[in-house]
Design goal:
Elements lengths: L2 H10 L4 H8 L3 H10 L4 H11 L3 H5 L3 H23 L2
Protein backbone atom coordinates (compact mmCIF):
# COMPACT_ATOMS: atom_id res chain seq x y z
CA UNK A 1 0.00 0.00 0.00
CA UNK A 2 1.20 3.49 -0.81
CA UNK A 3 -0.27 6.12 1.49
CA UNK A 4 1.76 8.86 -0.18
CA UNK A 5 -0.26 8.15 -3.33
CA UNK A 6 -3.44 9.02 -1.41
CA UNK A 7 -1.94 12.33 -0.31
CA UNK A 8 -0.67 13.10 -3.82
CA UNK A 9 -4.00 12.27 -5.45
CA UNK A 10 -5.90 14.36 -2.90
CA UNK A 11 -3.79 17.41 -3.69
CA UNK A 12 -3.90 16.75 -7.43
CA UNK A 13 -7.70 16.77 -7.34
CA UNK A 14 -7.62 20.12 -5.52
CA UNK A 15 -9.00 18.62 -2.33
CA UNK A 16 -7.89 19.40 1.20
CA UNK A 17 -5.97 16.94 3.34
CA UNK A 18 -8.06 17.94 6.36
CA UNK A 19 -11.22 16.92 4.44
CA UNK A 20 -9.59 13.61 3.50
CA UNK A 21 -8.74 13.03 7.15
CA UNK A 22 -12.30 13.80 8.23
CA UNK A 23 -13.63 11.35 5.64
CA UNK A 24 -11.22 8.69 6.93
CA UNK A 25 -12.14 9.39 10.57
CA UNK A 26 -8.70 10.56 11.66
CA UNK A 27 -6.90 13.75 12.53
CA UNK A 28 -4.35 15.35 10.20
CA UNK A 29 -1.72 14.42 12.79
CA UNK A 30 -2.75 10.76 12.66
CA UNK A 31 -2.67 10.87 8.86
CA UNK A 32 0.82 12.40 8.90
CA UNK A 33 1.93 9.55 11.15
CA UNK A 34 0.37 7.01 8.75
CA UNK A 35 2.22 8.60 5.82
CA UNK A 36 5.48 8.62 7.77
CA UNK A 37 5.15 4.93 8.71
CA UNK A 38 3.39 3.90 5.46
CA UNK A 39 0.85 2.08 7.59
CA UNK A 40 -2.92 2.56 7.66
CA UNK A 41 -5.95 0.39 8.36
CA UNK A 42 -7.79 -1.21 5.49
CA UNK A 43 -10.98 0.60 6.53
CA UNK A 44 -9.23 3.99 6.36
CA UNK A 45 -7.90 3.04 2.93
CA UNK A 46 -11.42 2.16 1.81
CA UNK A 47 -12.76 5.49 3.09
CA UNK A 48 -9.97 7.34 1.27
CA UNK A 49 -10.90 5.58 -1.98
CA UNK A 50 -14.53 6.60 -1.54
CA UNK A 51 -13.54 10.21 -0.75
CA UNK A 52 -11.29 10.34 -3.81
CA UNK A 53 -13.91 8.62 -5.99
CA UNK A 54 -11.38 6.01 -7.07
CA UNK A 55 -11.49 2.22 -6.90
CA UNK A 56 -9.45 0.97 -3.96
CA UNK A 57 -7.38 -1.08 -6.40
CA UNK A 58 -6.19 2.19 -7.97
CA UNK A 59 -4.61 3.19 -4.66
CA UNK A 60 -2.64 -0.06 -4.57
CA UNK A 61 -1.65 -0.03 -8.23
CA UNK A 62 2.06 0.60 -8.76
CA UNK A 63 1.29 1.77 -12.30
CA UNK A 64 -1.17 4.43 -11.10
CA UNK A 65 1.22 7.33 -11.66
CA UNK A 66 1.80 6.20 -15.23
CA UNK A 67 -1.95 5.86 -15.75
CA UNK A 68 -2.42 9.41 -14.44
CA UNK A 69 0.15 10.70 -16.91
CA UNK A 70 -1.56 8.92 -19.79
CA UNK A 71 -4.98 10.26 -18.77
CA UNK A 72 -3.56 13.78 -18.71
CA UNK A 73 -1.93 13.26 -22.10
CA UNK A 74 -5.28 12.15 -23.54
CA UNK A 75 -6.97 15.27 -22.14
CA UNK A 76 -4.24 17.46 -23.64
CA UNK A 77 -4.58 15.80 -27.04
CA UNK A 78 -8.37 16.14 -26.95
CA UNK A 79 -7.96 19.85 -26.25
CA UNK A 80 -5.55 20.22 -29.18
CA UNK A 81 -7.99 18.40 -31.48
CA UNK A 82 -10.81 20.66 -30.31
CA UNK A 83 -8.73 23.79 -31.02
CA UNK A 84 -7.74 22.51 -34.46
CA UNK A 85 -11.35 21.80 -35.36
CA UNK A 86 -12.37 25.29 -34.27
CA UNK A 87 -9.79 26.82 -36.65
CA UNK A 88 -11.32 25.12 -39.71
Amino acid sequence: MNIKRIKKLTLKKGLLIKDLCTAMGMTPQNFAECVKNNNMSGRAFEKAAIFLNEPISFLFNEKADEIDMLKQRIKDLEEIIKLLKEKR
